[in-house]
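pinging the channel bc i need a second pair of eyes. not urgent but kinda urgent?? the chain im working w is below, pasted from the shared doc
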Amino acid sequence: MHEFEIQKKFAEACRTGKLDDLNVDKERLQLYTEIIAINVEDALVNAFPILNTILPEEVWEKVVRDFMKEKLTTPYLWQLPEEFMEYILKSKWKNALDIPFLEDLLMYEWLELELFYRNEVEDEKVFNWNQSFDLNTNVEIINFKYPVHKINLYDYDEMVGLKGSYPLILYRNLETNEIEYIEITPFLYEVIGLIIQGKTPLEAVEEIASKYQIDYMEVLEPLEQFFKKLTAKKILI
C-alpha cells in the first residue's frame, strides 16, 4: 500500500473509527479520533454559533459525529463550514431537525464567515446611471424567507411566524472589517439583480419600474443617493 493510501485510510479511520486493514493500536486510534472530533466541533461551533445554541447539546453532537462519518472530506478547517452546511441540507438532518428557517440560518452564518475571507476588489467607481457595475467579491445579495439577520430579536415561535421576503445586501465593511448588512426592498433586489447581469442602473430601474407599474422618473433621485452609497462603500464596483 502506497504512503498516500495509508494516510487516506488512516484519516478515514480517525473519522469513522473503523480500522479495516490498518495496523494501528485501537486505543491510539481512539485518541486521534477524539482529537479530530474536538477540532472539528470547535470549528463548527465558531462557524454556526446560533445553530449550536438552538439545538440541544446531544443533538448537536450527534449531527457533528454523523457529519464526520458520512461527509467530512476536506483536510482544511476553513472548508469545514461549507461541507457541514451542505451535509445538513442534503441528509436526513434537514427534516429531522424540524427548523423551518434552518436553510436561511445556515446560509447566513456561513456567509458571515465566507465573506470575511474573500479578497475584495479595491477599485472604486463614481456612480453613473449609464455605466455598468458589478458586485465586489466581498458582497452577496440574497433574499431570505426568514429574518435570520435579526434572530436575536425574536424567540423561536416568533421567527417561525415571520416567514416572508427579506432581501439583504451582505458585505464586509472594508474599513472596520466587520460583516454588515443593508436591508433592501424587493424592488431594489430585482434592480440590483439586473445590474449584476450587465444592465446599466438606468436600464434596470426602467425595466423593474415598468414591472411594478410605477414611473421610473419619480424614483431616480432617491435611488441615485442609494447607489452612490453602494459605490462609496465599494459594494458596487
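so The first strand starts at residue 139 and ends at 144. and Strands lie at 139-144, 166-172, 179-183. — does that match what u expected or am i reading it wrong
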